[in-house]
Structures
1.
Amino acid sequence: MARTRTPVVAGWFAGEGDGFRLLGTRCTACASVFFPREDHNCRNPDCSGGELEEIPLSRRGRVWSYTDSRYRPPSPYVTDPELPWEPCALIAVELEAERIVVLGQAAPGVTVADLAVGMEAEVVPGVLHEDAETTWTTWHWRPTGVKA
Amino acid sequence: MDDVALAADGGEGVTDEVAVLGAGMHPWGKWGRSFVEYGVAAARAALADAGLEWRDIGSVIGADTVRGGYPGYVAGATFAKALGWQGARVASVYAACASGAQAVDTARAQILAGLADVVLVVGADAAPKGFFRPAGGDRPDDPDWLRFRVLGATNPVYFGLYARRRMAVHGDTPEDFAQVKVKNAAMGALNPNARYRSRVTAEEVAASAVVADPLRLLDICATSDGGAALVLSSMEFARRHGQAEPVRIRAVSTVTPRYPNTVLDLPDIATDSAVAVDPPGETFRESIARAAYEEAGIGPEDLSLAEVYDLSTALELQWYEDLGLCGEGEGVKLLRDGATALGGRIPVNVSGGLASFGEAVPAQAIAQVCELAWQLRGEAGDRQVGGARVGISANQGLFGHGSAVIAVR
C-alpha cells in the first residue's frame, strides 16, 4: 500500500515542483506578513487587527546564515536509531520582498561546504521522514548556484 | 517623602535602590541530586553571608526550574517548605534563562513598594543530560516543540547560525571564538563555584568535535546542576543591620522585544517580517542593556565589569557590542586587545562565565548577580577586578525575555 503524503505541519506550504511555496498570512489592515502563519491576530502593536489572508511567500531569497547538526537531535525529531546519524545542514534564508528570515533544512546532499552567506537559495518540496503509513513532507532550501 | 511627587516621577529618572545583603551558591557540577538541595544550600549560604536568620526573611521569590523549555518545578514555595514554613510571603517566576532577573525584579518591587523589608531570591536546577529538548507529546501549537519536530533545531543550531553570521558580516574566525573560551576558562579556574576549573588552550578548542558548524564542543556551554541565592533588603533595613555602604542594585531590565524583531531568536523558525513596519533602531539585546543603563543613569563607560550570557563563545562577542563596550563588529578586537580579560579595561565573565559553569537555567542570572556582589565588595579573591564600583549582568531568556542587572557600590 502506498504511503499517504502528509505535511509535517498543516498549512505552512503547498504545491508541487516549481509551484511549491511556503504559505504565510498577511494582515488586510496593515499588510504585515507572518510566517509561521498567524490566523487569529495581527502582531503589529500599532494595528488594531485586520483579517489575515493566506499568501505564498517568495520562492527565492539570500542565505542569511547556515549551520548543521553534527549530533542526532532529540525527539520529537524522528530518526532511525538503527542508522548512523548523517549531519543535516540548516539554512536561514532572507526573503527580500517579505523582509523576513526563514529557517529550514537544506535539500538532501547539500552540506555546509556548499554554502555561503549571501548566495541565492530557493524553496523546494522535501521529505522529513517516512513511517509505515505516511510520508511526512516539509520544505527544504536549496542553493540555486547564484553566488553572493 | 512626598508620595505625589514620587508618583509623578515614576516613569523617568533613577529608580530607588535596594541593598544586596547576602549572596550564596551551591557549586555548579553534575551532582545528580535534587534541585531543592542545591537551592537550600545556596539560600543558607546567602543568609549566612547576610548575617541573617531564615526567620528574618519576609518574602521568598523562587526562579522555577525549566523542563522542556517551560516551567518545571515550582520554586518559591518548594524552597520555603524545605527551609521550614515560617509564613513568609512567596512568589515563583519563570522566564527561562531570564528567570533569575525576574526574581530579582520581583523582590525589588516588593521592597520598594514596602511589602517586605528583606527578600530571599533563590534559583536552582538539576539539568537533564544532553541537549535541552521540548516537552513530550504532540504539541503542534508550541513553537519550541515545532522547531525540534520540523527542523531538529537544537539550541546549538541557533548558536551556530549566529556564529556563522558574525564570520560573514564582521570577519570573525573560529580562532577568535576559541580565544573567548581560553579567556573564560582561565578565569573559571580561579572560581571555586565553577564546574570546570581547568585552563583550556586554543588547540584544545580546535580539537574538540564540531557540534553545529562552525562551533565546536568547547565553544558551547554545557548544562549543569547548581544553585544561587541573594538576600535583598531595603536601604533602611541595611542601615539598621549595620550595612552603611552595601552593594546596591540600581537597575533591573526585564524588557521584551519590539516588533518587528529581525534577529532569528530561539525557538522561532522565522523572524518577524519588516515589510509593513520598519525595524526599531536597535536589536532586542541592545535594548535590554539600554533599558538598564537608562534606569541606572549610567553608561557603558562607567562599568568596572560585566557578566554576560556566553551560551557560545561567539555570543559573548555579540554581547560586547550589544552592551556598548565597543562598536558593532569590534568585539574580536576588544577581546584580542585583552580589554575583557582580568586586568583589562572592562573584564567580562571574570566568574568564568557559562563556559566554566555550564547552564543551570533558573540559577544562572542570580549567579551573575552573586559575582557582581562579590566583585563590588572586593571579596572575589584571585579573580578580583581591582577597584570595582559598577557591574552589569546581561542575558536573554527563551520566548522574548530580557534580563540585565546593574549593581553599584
2.
Amino acid sequence: MKALLLIFLIFIGFNFYGGEITVCKSCEISSVKDAVEMAEMGDTIRVKSGLYKENNISIKDKSLVLIGEDFPVIDAQMQGYAIIVSAQAFRIEGFKIINIGRSHTSDFAAILISNSANFEIKNNRFDKIFFGILIERSKNGRIIGNKFSGNAKSQAHSGNAIHLWKTSEMHIEDNQVEGVRDGIYLEFSDNAEIKNNVCKNNLRYGLHFMFSDGNIYSGNLFENNGAGVAVMYSKNIKMYRNTFKNNWGSASYGLLLKEITDSELIQNTFEENTVGISADNTSRINYIENNFKSNGYAVKIRGGCYRNVFKRNNFLYNSFDLTYHGHSNENSFNGNFWSNYSGYDLDKDSFGDIPYRPVSLFSYLVNKTPESIVMLRSLFIDLIEFSEKVSPIFTPADVLDSQPFIKKIQW
Amino acid sequence: MYKILKYSFFDLFRSRWSFVYFFFYLLLGLVLLFLNNDLSNAIITLMNVVIVLVPLIGTIFGIMYFYNSREFTELLLAQPIARRHIFLGQYLGVAISLALSLVLGLGIPFIIYGLFESSAIWDFFSLLVVGAFLTFIFTALSFGIALKFENKIKGFGMAIVMWLFLAIIYDGLFLLLLMYFQEYPLEDFALVASVLNPIDLSRTLILLKLDISALLGYTGAVFKEFFGTTKGSLISFIVLLAWVFIPVWGMLRLAGKKDF
C-alpha cells in the first residue's frame, strides 16, 4: 500500500512538470477532445467554464490532469460515454457531466475507467446519468467529493452511480448520490474504503457488495433507499458508524446481509426501517454497540446463521426486536439493552436479574405463519404475549439475553 | 319515534352519563397528545383504545340502559305507539349520544393540537367513523340481548360473552385456524375472516392507512390491494352497515314478538 502511494505521489509530482493546455470556447483549442489528443504524457489540461457538447473523449495510456474551472459542462447528448480512460496516474477534477443516454446493451457511463491505476476523480458533478463512474480492472483510485443525481424510474432502465468491477484498493469518500439504481456498487472488488458518503432516495440499494472481500465502510448515511445496504457473498467486511434511516416500505431493509462471514458491525444506527438488519446465512459476525430505534423489525435472523454475537446494542421501541428461525446455533444475545425489558436489578450490578427473551410470541407466530401478521395490535395477541412473558412455552428457550442492561448503553 | 329518541337522548344527557363518557375521551385524547405530540402515533395508541373500549362501553351501556328504563318502556307500550318506534327511538337515543360523546371527546383535543394542518386528518377521520360504527353495532347487539333475556344477570353475562367473543375469542380461533392450515395459502381466508368481524375489520381499516402497514409484508399487500380498490372499500362499508342493520332488525323483530 505504501509503495503504491509513493508511486502515486511520484506520478503527481511528475505531472507538475508537464505542459499545460487551456481549453475554452474562444481559445485556440475549443474542444476537450482535441486537447486530450494533443496532450502528451504528464500534461495538464485546464478547461474554462462553458458548455462542451462532446462524447467519448478517450484518454489512452497518457497520464493527464484534467481540471475544470467553474464546472465546465460536458454534455454527452445521450450518446455513448462522456470520458473513457485507460491510463496510469491521472486526475479528473471540477467537471460537470450531464446527459448520459440509457442503453440495454452497453453500460454507458459519465466516466469509464478500465485497466488503470493510481488515479483521482475529485469534486465533479454528475447529472442525468445512466452510470456515473464505472471502473473495471483497476486499482488504487480515489473518488472524492463527487455529486451524482439521476432520475431512475425502474430498475431495468437505470444504472449505478459508482460501479466497481474487479478493482482493488479503491478509496471512495464524501460523495453524494441521489436518484440512481444502486448508489455504490462493488463486484469482485477487494479492500475498498468507503467513507462519509451520503446515499439517498435510490431505487435499489444505497451501497451494494457482491463477492467483494475485505472492504471497510464507515460514517456513511443511507436514507430512504429501496434498501440501505446489501452485502452479499462477501467476507471480512467492516461496517462502522453508518446511519441507516427511513428505508421504509413493504420490501425494504436497512441492511441486508446474505452469505457473509467474519465481519464486524460497530456503532451503526438503524432508525425507522421496516427491517433494520435481515441476516441470511451469516456466520461469525460481531454486532457491537449499534442502535436500533423505531424499526418495524430490528433484526431478522433467517436460516443458517452461526456464531453471531450481539453485544452492547440498544434496542429502542421497535415493533419487533428479533425474529428468529431455528435453534440458537451458538448465536449470542447477551449484554444488550432492550427497551421492552421489564425486569429489575436488585443486586445493583447494572444487569437485570432475570433474562430477557427478545423473540416475542407474536414474532414467533408471524415467523411460522406469515399471514398471522394481520392480528397486529389485536387484544388477543396482547393477552397471550403477556401470559407468554410470565411463563414462556412457545418462544425458543435458548434465544435469550441473560445479562440485559437496565439502562441504555452509552458508547 | 323522534319524541322517544329525543327523550332517551336528553335522559342520558341529564343523568350525566354522556358527560362522563365525553370527558373520559376528552381526557384520553388530551393526555395522549400531551405525552407524544405526534398525531399519527397518537392515532395508533387511540386505535388500540377505541377498538377495545368502544365496543365494551357500547355493550355495557346499552344493556344497562335497557334494563334501567324497563318500567318506562312498559309504560310506553301501554300507549298507542308502534313498538318499532319505541325501541328504535330508544336505541337511536343511546347510540347517537354515545357516538356523539366519542366524536366530540376525541375530536376536540385533536383539533386543538392542529389536526387540520396535519396530513393525519383522514386517518383520524376514519378512526372516528369506525368508532361511531362500533358504537351503533354493539349498542344494537346489547339491546337485542336485553330483549331476549328477562333475567338481568343472564343478560349481562351474555352481553359480556358476546363482547369477549368478538374482541378476543374470535381472534384466538382465527389464529388457531391460521396455524393449523399454515401449509395452505391463507391470504383470502385471512381477508374474509377479518372482514366478517366488525372489530377486526375496523382494526384492519385503520392499520392499513398508517405507516405501520409496511410491517404486514405480503399479506398486507394483498389486503391493501383489496381495501385500496373502490370495490374493497364498498364491501367493507356494506359489511359495517350490515353489522348495524341486521342486529337492529333482529332486535325489532324480537320486540315485535315479545310478550311484555
